Every structure is written in structure tokens, then in C-alpha cells.
């Protein structure tokens, strides 16, 4: 699915507008919708011509969108890669045509670091560490003593946030809780509500005594809540829940007592991205990784924070 927004000359001076080709992952979560809106609004605000396509979580769709942007000769290509590997060939084609590539939200693994200019996005490994640290507080608050059986709902297999959140979480677990915490089940829910619900239902069948759910995003957590309730258990009490993102629906579930803590991952990357895109177009040097600032929230902060949430 591809759409173009705005015309090719600016209203004021008639000078040529910057043309940005953007390939989005899909529309799998509340986070993604907020990210898409932010990118579209910021491009409009900056006065760019935005060529936008939604890859519906398929790498082949992203590759053909990027190829089409290369053929069209856009000024800059930006994309949020669905998975980390398999990009070198298409990125080399962009480089050969001297079209700079900016990564946003997610990173890639590449043999040639010159194939992209910068990444504008979060530190997912740190989000995983923060999830483990906030779980310590959640367990303490709940008065949980003894071993902790953890279920993990992973994001899309092979995607940077899934790999890195799992890694950061495990790092803290291995360092500080090798004796008492254990991940007893871990499977992908593809970052969707339906995936979270279906996989959690299966987890509860195989491991009815789970103490904690760590879900790599709010949407999977919300789907899991439905499965937990359907199994006759109380989310947030019988099973303590930590998620990542901080979308409105996540905060609503947290203010209802069903999620215990949320590690924020900010999707409002549009304005920063547009700034970087202009600099890259102008040949300015930019930082290799432009990180996003984020916070963590416990359940008792949810009601007060809810009205201030922007996505
Ligand atoms: O890449 C960011 C992740 O992708 C978000 O945490 C998740 O909700 C989204 O689908």
C-alpha cells in the first residue's frame, strides 16, 4: 500500500520540496499507529513530499517499496525495518544511486556500516533491562516471595525490539536473579493483540502456575489479559504483568489494575526524523544513533499519567 502526500513544490517560493520515501513496518500495534501519524504530521509540518508505504509486516514488501523509491529518485529514504537481517542488497542499490538511508525505530545488521547514515530510535536492550528492574519493584509491592516463574511474549521473530528486549531482560535476570527467576515459556505473539491472546492461552494450558508475564509490547499484554481472564484468573494480581510501549490502551489497563508496570517506548519520532532527514540531505554530519528519551511507570502512577499521554 503506497500513498503520496502533498505536491512537489512549496506554496511560498515555488522551490523544490524535499522528497522522502518512507517504508513503514505495518499497522500491528497502537505504537505503530502513533508512529505513522507522527511521521505523516511531521513531514507535512516540514513541508516535504512524503511517499509512504505500509509493508504489512512483510520484508519483501519493504524491499519492493525501497526499490520503488530508488527508481523514483527520492532525496532520502527512511524506513523502520521489520527484521534485522537481509537488507544489504537493497541498501547497496540505494548507495549506488547516492540516495542516503536513515533508519527509524528499528536497526539492521549489515556487513557494511556505510549503507545507512543514522538510526533515530530507542535503546531496546535498555528497555529490556528496565523491564527487569521494574519487575523487582512490582514483585516487592505484591509481596511475592520465593521463585518467580516468568512467561515472555516476544515481539516479531527477528525484529530488533524482540531480540534486544529479550536480551536486556535476560542480562539483569542472569546477573541478579539467577537463583530465583526463571523464564518458563517464551514465544512470539508478533506484537499483535490477537497473537498475545492466542499465545497466552497456550501458555496457561502448559504452565498454569505462571507468576509473571513480560510482554514485549502493550498490545500483546492486552491480548494476554483477555486470555488470563478467560482462564478465570486476575491479571495484575494472580499474574503480575510488565509490558513495553505506554500507549493509551496500556495505560487504561494499568489504571484498571490489570498491568503492573509499563516501560515506555516513545513512537513520536516524526519531528526528530524530519530534522535529521534535512541535515542528511544538506550533507551535514549527524550522530550515528539518535536515541529517544523515555520513562517507566508503576501502576500507582497510571491514573494521574493517563490524561497526559499523547498516544
Ligand atoms: O519497534 C517498536 C515496536 O514495534 C513497538 O514496541 C511495538 O509495539 C511495535 O509493533
UniProtKB/TrEMBL annotation:
GO molecular function: carbohydrate binding
Transmembrane segments: none
A Pfam match: Peripla_BP_4
Annotated keywords: Signal
InterPro entries (UniProt xref): Peripla_BP_I, SBP_2_dom, TAT_signal
Gene3D superfamilies given in the database record: 3.40.50.2300
Highest taxon, organism lineage: Bacteria
Domain Periplasmic binding protein, chain residue ranges per copy: 22-284
CDD domains assigned: PBP1_galactofuranose_YtfQ-like
GO cellular component, one term: cell envelope
PANTHER family named among the record's database cross-references: D-ALLOSE-BINDING PERIPLASMIC PROTEIN-RELATED, GALACTOFURANOSE-BINDING PROTEIN YTFQ
Record protein name field: LacI family transcriptional regulator
Organism name: Streptomyces resistomycificus
Amino acid at each position: 500500500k503506497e500513498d503520496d502526500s502533498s505536491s512537489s513544490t512549496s506554496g511560498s517560493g515555488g522551490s523544490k520540496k524535499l522528497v522522502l520515501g518512507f517504508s513503514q513496518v505495518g499497522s500491528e500495534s497502537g505504537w505503530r499507529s502513533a508512529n505513522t501519524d507522527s511521521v505523516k504530521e511531521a513531514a507535512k509540518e516540514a513541508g516535504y513530499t512524503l511517499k509512504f508505504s505500509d509493508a504489512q509486516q512483510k520484508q519483501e514488501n519493504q524491499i519492493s517499496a525501497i526499490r520503488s523509491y530508488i527508481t523514483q529518485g527520492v532525496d532520502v529514504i527512511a524506513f523502520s525495518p521489520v527484521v534485522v537481517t537481509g537488507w544489504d542488497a537493497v541498501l547497496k542499490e540505494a548507495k549506488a544511486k547516492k540516495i542516503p538511508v536513515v533508519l527509524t525505530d528499528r536497526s539492521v545488521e549489515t556487513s557494511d556500516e556505510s549503507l545507512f547514515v543514522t538510526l533515530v530510535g530507542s535503546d531496546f536492550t535498555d528497555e529490556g533491562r528496565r523491564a527487569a528492574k521494574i519487575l523487582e519493584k512490582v514483585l516487592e509491592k505484591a509481596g511475592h516471595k520465593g521463585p518467580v516463574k516468568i512467561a515472555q511474549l516476544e515481539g516479531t521473530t527477528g525484529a530488533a525490539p524482540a531480540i534486544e528486549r529479550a536480551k536486556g531482560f535476560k542480562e539483569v535476570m542472569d546477573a541478579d536473579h539467577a537463583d530465583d527467576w526463571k523464564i518458563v515459556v517464551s514465544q512470539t505473539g508478533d506484537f499483535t493483540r490477537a497473537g498475545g491472546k492466542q499465545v497466552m492461552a497456550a501458555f496457561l494450558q502448559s504452565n498454569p502456575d505462571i507468576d509473571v508475564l513480560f510482554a514485549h509490547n502493550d498490545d500483546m499484554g492486552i491480548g494476554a489479559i483477555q486470555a488470563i481472564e478467560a482462564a478465570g484468573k486476575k491479571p495484575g494480581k494472580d499474574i503480575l504483568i510488565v509490558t513495553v510501549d505506554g500507549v493509551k490502551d496500556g495505560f487504561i489497563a494499568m489504571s484498571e489494575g490489570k498491568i503492573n508496570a509499563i516501560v515506555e517506548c516513545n513512537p513520536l519520532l516524526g519531528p526528530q526524523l524530519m530534522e535529521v532527514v534535512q541535515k542528511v540531505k544538506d550533507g551535514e554530519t549527524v550522530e550515528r544513533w539518535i536515541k529517544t528519551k523515555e520513562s517507566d511507570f508503576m501502576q500507582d502512577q497510571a491514573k494521574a499519567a493517563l490524561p497526559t499521554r499523547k498516544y
